[in-house]
Design brief:
Length: about 325
């Protein structure tokens, strides 16, 4: 059975498509995108003007990811690998590859400005990782198109500060000796890089605010919360949202981080008491101990201020 027959037989078998991510992707390619495994189909390529616009739209992503893809390529580039950073539509924005491998990679379309969505070229690392919203390894004949079966790809999606798919990072190779163990190692490398890029994007989106690392046992991506000066949650990464049951609505409504993290209520009350006492002492200090002046600056009566001072044990 040739590759085309195998793809169609597996993809159209309901139980296989339900149990295998690759088979499910093959089925999408046949039934949703109307592709054929045997067709000669190159990735859609953007014009220079279209690529420039795509890069401009993803300027923050490129800035925060460049260091990571450079480090990754410095480690793996000599092993005959090509790195691509794409946007959420699978458009290759940045590419890293050794000059000696350029001919091979350009020939299969692993080049800046090409579109590696499933609709463009069928099952592949980038398009399938974005469609499934999870890291994938597409090994040689797991590709949908017969012409791409010499490729092996390891890809991880990248989420923005709101937890939505914004990009993907991919390592591909044409080497025949790239076995499944090697691809597993490459997959871990791109997942680690994607996690660091996600953290970079999150910290940039909430620059100037406090960032908390949330315990997330068994999770491989960062669980981060952005907190304002009043302890209210401003944002959360996808992993933090899953761990803490957060969504845009709960964040917009305003929820204290201490409530989410289930901190001890008595400790929280003590913390509030200490904060109020410290704030009041600062006001009195600025007024050089003049209670009337301090009360005026706070917009309260002198008697109210005395009651607060007594309650907070301020002499």
């Amino acid at each position: 059975m040739n590759h085309s027959d195998h793809v169609q037989a597996v993809a159209l078998h309901a139980s296989a498509a339900a149990s295998s991510p690759v088979a499910a992707s093959w089925r999408r390619c046949l039934t949703v995108h109307g592709l054929s495994p045997e067709e000669a189909r190159s990735p859609i390529r953007l014009s220079e003007a279209e690529l420039r616009l795509a890069r401009e739209a993803s300027g923050t992503l490129i800035e925060e990811a460049t260091g990571e893809i450079d480090r990754l390529f410095s480690t793996l580039g000599r092993a005959g690998c090509c790195l691509l950073l794409t946007d959420g539509n699978g458009v290759a924005l940045e590419r890293r590859g050794a000059a000696g491998d350029d001919k091979d990679f350009r020939g299969v379309g692993l080049w800046s400005g090409t579109v590696w969505s499933e609709a463009s070229v069928g099952t592949n690392g980038i398009g399938t990782a974005i469609a499934d919203e999870r890291p994938v390894v597409i090994y040689r004949d797991q590709h949908f198109l017969s012409q791409n079966t010499r490729l092996s790809c390891a890809t991880a999606p990248i989420r923005d500060h709101r937890g939505r798919i914004a990009a993907a990072i991919d390592i591909s190779t044409c080497r025949e000796d790239a076995g499944e163990m090697a691809m597993t190692i490459l997959s871990q490398a791109v997942r680690d890089a994607a996690s660091r890029i996600e953290a970079n994007l999150f910290r940039r989106a909430f620059a100037g605010h406090r960032i908390l690392l949330v315990p997330a046992e068994g999770k491989t991506t960062p669980a981060l919360l952005a907190i304002d000066r009043d302890d209210l949650v401003l944002g959360a990464t996808r992993t933090a949202r899953l761990v803490l049951g957060l969504d845009d609505g709960r964040i917009a409504a305003g929820i204290p981080a201490s409530d989410l993290l289930q901190e001890d209520a008595a400790a929280a009350e003590d913390s509030l008491h200490d904060a109020e006492r410290a704030a009041l002492r600062r006001v009195l200090s600025r007024a050089q101990g003049n209670v009337s002046a301090a009360a005026d600056s706070l917009g309260i009566s002198r008697a109210t201020l005395y009651r607060k001072m007594k309650k907070l044990s301020i002499n």
